[in-house]
Every structure is written in C-alpha cells, then in structure tokens.
Predict the 3D structure of the following.
Amino acid sequence: MTWHVGIDVGGTFTDLAALGPDGCVTTRKVLSDPSDQSNGVMVSLAAFGESGADVARLVHGTTVVTNLLLERTGARVVLCATEGHTDVLRLRRQARARLYDLSAHHPPPLVSSACTVTVPERVEPQGVVRALTHEVAEQVALQVAALEPDAVAVSLLHAYHDDAHERLLGAALARRLPGVDVVLSSDVLPEIREYERTATVSAEAYARPRVARYLARLTERLAESGHPEPMVMTSSGGVRPARAAERGAASLALSGPAGGVAGAAAVLRALGSDRFPLALTIDIGGTSADVGLIVDGEPLVEAGGAVAGVPIALPRVLVETVSAGGGSVGWVDDAGALRAGPRSAGAVPGPAAFGRGGTEATITDAHLALGHIARGQFQGGVAIDPEAATRAVASLAERVSLGTSAGAVERVARALLAAADAEMARALRRVSVERGVDPRACVLVAFGGGGPLHACALAEQLGVRAVLVPPHAGVLSAVGLALAPARREAIGSVMRRASELSADDVASLVESLGARAGGAADDEARTWVRARYTGQGHELEVPVTPGDDGAALARRFSEWHAARLGFTLAHDVEMVSARHAVSAPGHAATFARASRAAPAAFERDGVMVDDGAALEATVRGPATVVLPDATMRVADGWTARALPIGGWIVEAG
C-alpha cells in the first residue's frame, strides 16, 4: 500500500493521519516535544508502524514560525531601508495597541534601530528621483557586514513598482556576505503599503534561517528512516516541498491551523457544499483555539493579518487564534476575577489530570471535574486521573473564596469553561460578522481534541442551530494536511483602474503570473485580483475568469462588496494587485465507516455502553460521546445523529 500521510505538530499533541489507496484512514496521536518538533513527527511515524517505503507523500504542518515569533528566537536581521524611512517598523500605522488602554504597547519590531542601515536612494511612482550607484551599494553592504547579521532584509521605497534598486543592493550584499540570506521585499511582497511590505520582508528574514535548519534536520531524519522528503503546509492552504518552503518561511506562520480549515472544507464537500454553503470552524487543541470561515466548500483566503503581533501581509486562510485550549490555565486576577489563559500547561507539565507534574487547573481539568470526559486513556496514550483534576479545580475554588465543597468545585469548573467559551465566541463573531456573514446562517464545524466538547455551548451563544463534528475530529488538521494539494503561487502589483484594463490586459497579467508560478498541464490554475474603490484603504479579493476585462472585474467587485459589506459606491474601481495559484490534483479520500479507529461509545448516567453500530445511532443530550480521537458533549436540548461518512451532525431541538 502507498499512504499519503499528514502530520500536524501542535503545542500539546502531534497528530498523524494516513490515507490509504482504498479510502481507509488511520490516525495516531502522540505528545509533542516542545524542544524539537521533529521528535513528535518521528514518534508519530513510529506509532503508525508502516515502513517509509510505503509512504508515498508526507505533508507536515508546523508551528515553528509561530513559536519563534512569539518567543522572539529568530535570526539577527539587518534591515536596509530608504533614507528618511528607516523608522517605518517603529512608526507602524500610528495606531495604539488598544484604543482605550494607554498602558498597552505593540510588541517591539523584529529589527532594532541599531540594526537598520540607511540607503541613500529614492524611487517614486513616476520614476527614479535619486539613483543608487554601484559604489554606494558597496558602501551599504560594508555597513551591513559590520553588524554581522544572520540574514538581511531589503525594503526600499516603491520597490513594488520598480525593483531595480533592490536588485542592485541585493547583489552587492550577496557578494559581501556569501552564505547569508538576503531577502528582497520585491520578491516576498511586491505590493503597495510600505509598512506591511517592510514588516513582511523582515519577518521572512527573521524566520528563514531557523526554518531552514529545522526542515533540513527533519528531512535528514526522515531520509534515514526511508521516508520521502516532507512537504509543508503554507498559510494559504496549499503545500510545497520542504526545500521550497525554506525560501518562504513567513508563509508558514499559520501552517498547522490552515490544515484544519482545509480538512473541514474537505468534509463539507464530501457532504455536498450546497448543504452547508456557510460554515464557521472551531479547532480547539491543547494550547489554543483557531477559528475560520468556509464559503461554498472553500476556506476563505485573505491577504494580511498579524501573527504574534507581527504583520505578515501574505495570502492566508482566514484563521484567528485565541489562547483558549484544553491546557489553558485557570487563574485569579488582582480584582479577584476568575480567568482562563492565555498561559497554557502545554504538553509539559500538562493539565493536573495528566499526572506529568501539573498542579494548576486547566480547561481539561474542568471538563473532568464535571464528568464530561471519562476516566481511562486520554488522547495520545495519556492516562488521566479525574481525582487529580478535581483537586486542582478545588484549589482554584479556594483561591476565589468559595471553599472546596463539591458544589464549589462544580461552580468554578463551569465558570472556567464559560470564560473560555466567551473568548472563543468573540473570535467566531469577529471572523463572521466583520465580513458580512451572519453566524446564525452557518453550520459550526467543531474539531480538535476539545472542539466537540465546547461546540453546543458555542453554538448557543452564536445562535447557530447545527454543529458538524467531522470524522476523525481529533486529528482533522492532519487529515487536511494529507488531503492538501501541492500549490505554487505568484503575486504581482497592478495599480491600474479597471476602466483601463482590456480583456487582453487581463489575459496578459494572468499569463505573466502563471509563467512565474509554473506548473504542469493537468494542474488547476486560478487567479484573483485585489480591488477597491478609489480612495478606499482596504481591498477585497475577487476571482478572475477567462475572458474578463476590467469592466467585468469591476462589476464582480461591486457585487462582492455589496454582499460582504452591505453597500456599494459610485466610484471607479482600482485593481491593486493580483494573485495566481497553481494546484496539483488533490488527494481525495473516502470518509468511510471502515476508517474508524474504534467504535463510538456512549456515556449515560455514568455508564459506558459500547455501540458497534455507531453509524445508525442517535443520541439526545445531555450525553457524552467518546469518539476514537476526541470527546463530544451533546448538550441538553440537542440531538446528535451519526453521518454515513462518519462524524456527527448535532442539532438544536
């Protein structure tokens, strides 16, 4: 057999999903190693048990970039910026971190002032104002070399329009600093907006050396065990070979979460995207919860967004992350209020119930104290101890002066879950309401180890009437990785009014981007333009179809603007940039009952009843359904029905 394997490394667990040629799905879950993510990959493959020769394709979702941005453990970067514009990273957009909190501050830039080098040159949209000579470029390279950088970022004014100065300086830097990565903004993000372009190229330079070392080490370890070179999920939902991913480190910032949304979209398409045209997703892991939006069976992709406070203006699957995972620690603030997160117990020491040294109450401990999770083996082979969970929650109850009685423990456990639910519900509203989508018109797709536990409570807060718990819910991100197609992308600046673009102009743009992206004859190619009304400061991305001219794109933009934002303007439409993606044929899999790792079991009144005929089952809440890789809580007033492809549909009433 030849298997297509997806491996998602999270903060607490590493998940593996392997798709066989007959549609069967095999899954594994092991504890992550925070010190080296590649250890989790190798341990999960060992648990899978198949030889490397039987693995045709291995796709990896990693949080390496997210972690280094959070922990600020990336490379020493020197930034080269146009004279007079060297403070752009510190000026940002001159907006406060939080409007009404004067004590809140933005995270410091990835590149300090001391590591910023002035470049005496100037290009404006109408042309070169101050030329960069070869001699000056060599002098700048000498200054950069004296700072001993691990990587160099180059962001010169208006390089999206004319990149000649960046190319000239990049060549001088490469000669002076052989072996040091030199990253040009015109290669990474050839679009307007100096701050976002500079921040993105700085993030790329900051992450690239460590990502390259990690992927090289992982590739070496996999080769030693006979496995193929890994492919890596990008933030936009496609995958690329590890060697190519090394040169696009910033595009891996949402590598793991993008896999979950891709997996949810695959399940929705298997059910028929017309059945659920709009879907919200909630992926609750051990460390965080990720929310997303799926429209007509496809994840919503947007340009831009911040990761750990760092703007990265590259295309990405819409994902918003909140610190509300199963390992989120409950604590009491200075005002005596009970809080949940953002600190997480992670894999080490983990929740108190894991028996790995943790003593503080977490969201997982609260579920155990309330009986939502049964005693026995937890995900990843961890043996859980409900009594230890109850003691941890009782300690928290004592800190809020409620005592340690059974009633106090229950009250605090429910309050802890309510605090986490409120945080996740706010994130779900942000990704939907702010984009003109009524959450009440959506199905909520809940996955990850904790998603099915919180789904009904979240749906009630949002007014959602149906919840979909997909097959392999606990490892759906890994399933999405295994299914994801290889993808190559190209971005280009346009900056022309729609009225100026003929059908030939649009076709030429698509052809140019397609040549840069490459691809095979049987690949699927798609193009989008980012457009706006003249005078607007934000854009919407709309698809390009064969034969389109500027007028057709303007009409489509106005239709999308009305649908998303509720209004149109009597202004000209301007095309800001274009994105072209070339995807290899996908790896479809059948979510068959035979793929279940174990039958489902139902817990009623504390009694576990094994039900091998799970596909014909109907469960009315309140009840707990123990899934092969997660636990589903069916709330009072909700009914769960098993689906023919596996998984459950849970409906109110």
